[in-house]
Automatic annotation (TrEMBL):
<feature type="domain" description="Ammonium transporter AmtB-like">
    <location>
        <begin position="39"/>
        <end position="379"/>
    </location>
</feature>
<feature type="transmembrane region" description="Helical">
    <location>
        <begin position="188"/>
        <end position="204"/>
    </location>
</feature>
<comment type="similarity">
    <text>Belongs to the ammonium transporter (TC 2.A.49) family. Rh subfamily.</text>
</comment>
<feature type="transmembrane region" description="Helical">
    <location>
        <begin position="269"/>
        <end position="294"/>
    </location>
</feature>
<feature type="transmembrane region" description="Helical">
    <location>
        <begin position="122"/>
        <end position="143"/>
    </location>
</feature>
<feature type="transmembrane region" description="Helical">
    <location>
        <begin position="91"/>
        <end position="115"/>
    </location>
</feature>
<dbReference type="GO" id="GO:0008519">
    <property type="term" value="F:ammonium channel activity"/>
</dbReference>
<keyword id="KW-0812">Transmembrane</keyword>
<protein>
    <recommendedName>
        <fullName>Ammonium transporter AmtB-like domain-containing protein</fullName>
    </recommendedName>
</protein>
<feature type="transmembrane region" description="Helical">
    <location>
        <begin position="344"/>
        <end position="367"/>
    </location>
</feature>
<feature type="transmembrane region" description="Helical">
    <location>
        <begin position="216"/>
        <end position="238"/>
    </location>
</feature>
<keyword id="KW-1133">Transmembrane helix</keyword>
<dbReference type="GO" id="GO:0005886">
    <property type="term" value="C:plasma membrane"/>
</dbReference>
<feature type="transmembrane region" description="Helical">
    <location>
        <begin position="42"/>
        <end position="60"/>
    </location>
</feature>
<dbReference type="GO" id="GO:0097272">
    <property type="term" value="P:ammonium homeostasis"/>
</dbReference>
<feature type="transmembrane region" description="Helical">
    <location>
        <begin position="306"/>
        <end position="324"/>
    </location>
</feature>
<feature type="transmembrane region" description="Helical">
    <location>
        <begin position="12"/>
        <end position="30"/>
    </location>
</feature>
Length: 394
């Protein structure tokens, strides 16, 4: 342990200082003050990122310090990088609020490789992903003509599939590994994160929308129905007929993710409710199918289930938006056909960029320079945190 600690001290702190120094130089050269936001919206998004996702990822019994602490580190570094990208690009219009929302892609991706990458790898992954996601937003907006709101909602798609692609470059943990498990306490803390995300998700969906009241109303309905459906499905599909915390944990947010794409165009509450119900069904049933497919077939270990928690509901939301536009074509707006095609292209482009750049990033993270951790050291806090009570109950 002493040699490991010395190696850690000689690498991670200096990398953090170096990244901050680079940010200061770039801010001096390129960045001006970003003021295009409402502080209450920024505050809600910050609560989601720091508190919501912080607790959301604490389900591993020996990795809770790193889940919460390193989550804060990558959020703060990612936020600075995102502000810089929003400013330097000149064409992105979300300002400081958009910069904060970009970081959601990173925390989703980190969930796929949770416990398998060290702080150095987390920092590199954060900077690369922020840069690539902002560039993909630019292409979506100015080549594929997607709105800024729709391009921002792709943050769930990008984060999930980027994380899965990175995870594919790392070795799987042993099946039924003792450290790759949760406890009632860690599950409860993780559910607390889900509750924070559930409460603040309407703010996330409406932050950049013009019709905020409509978006908030539809998002609240979709979230409520998806959470209720999660309880019903959990009781139906478990062998003993009891609720399972992992089902609620993964599906309670599905409705909010799906509705984000079309919340401003839904005129009837029952449509939002159906989307929330279907999103929850897709999330829970998808988790059952993917767990038997990704592990044995594709050899991808998704630590926190970001694929069925964020990826699949986002894919469904993008498809639902296309369906609504097709209905508009058939009724009153035939000129919207090209818009439908371009937005299908934007979704496919986002997933493709996420997968390709995720694979490349995974290869970079496995370079010896970044000190990849061995499989035997997966899901351990002891590598990075001081435990005065180390020998007792850890």
């Amino acid at each position: 342990m002493p040699s490991t600690y010395l190696s850690f001290r000689c690498s991670v702190p200096w990398l953090i200082i170096s990244v901050e120094a680079v940010f200061v130089v770039f801010y001096f050269l390129f960045s001006d003050m970003l003021t295009f936001f409402t502080y209450s919206d920024l505050q809600d998004v910050s609560h989601m990122l720091i508190i919501g996702f912080g607790f959301f990822l604490t389900f591993l019994k020996r990795y809770s310090f790193s889940s919460m602490g390193l989550n804060l580190l990558i959020i703060l570094l990612g936020f600075q990088c995102s502000i810089l990208m929003e400013n330097v690009s000149l064409f992105l219009t979300g300002g400081m609020l958009g910069a904060a929302m970009n970081v959601v892609a990173v925390v989703i991706s980190i969930g796929a490789v949770l416990g398998k990458i060290n702080p150095m790898q987390s920092i590199v992954m954060t900077v690369v992903e922020i840069v690539v996601f902002c560039m993909s937003k630019l292409i979506n907006m100015y080549i594929l003509k997607a709105s800024y709101l729709v391009s921002m909602m792709h943050v769930h798609l990008f984060g999930a599939y980027f994380g899965l692609a990175v995870s594919s470059r790392f070795s799987e943990p042993p099946p039924r590994a003792e450290k790759n498990a949760s406890t009632p306490k860690s599950d409860l803390l993780s559910m607390l994160g889900t509750l924070f995300l559930w409460v603040f998700w309407p703010s996330f969906n409406s932050a950049l929308a013009e019709e905020k009241d409509k978006v908030i109303f539809n998002t609240c309905l979709a979230l409520a129905v998806s959470a209720v459906t999660a309880f019903a499905l959990s009781g139906l599909i478990t062998k003993d007929g009891k609720f399972r915390m992992t089902h609620i944990h993964s599906a309670a947010l599905a409705g909010g993710i799906t509705i984000g794409y079309a919340a401003d165009s839904i005129e009837y509450p029952w449509i939002a409710m159906i989307l929330g119900l279907l999103a929850s069904v897709i999330s829970i049933l998808g988790s059952l199918c993917l767990q038997s497919c990704l592990h044995p077939t594709l050899k991808i270990h998704d630590s926190s289930g970001v694929h069925f928690t964020f990826g699949l509901p986002a894919v469904f939301g993008a498809l639902a938006q296309v369906i609504f536009w097709v209905m508009e074509i058939q009724t009153e707006l035939p000129s919207i056909g090209s818009r439908v095609v371009l937005n299908i292209g934007a979704s496919c482009f986002t997933i493709s960029v996420a997968l390709i750049t995720g694979l490349i990033t995974g290869l970079i993270l496995n370079l010896k320079l970044l000190k990849p951790i061995p499989v035997s050291k997966y899901f351990e806090d002891q590598m990075y945190w001081e435990f005065p009570h180390l020998a007792v109950g850890f």
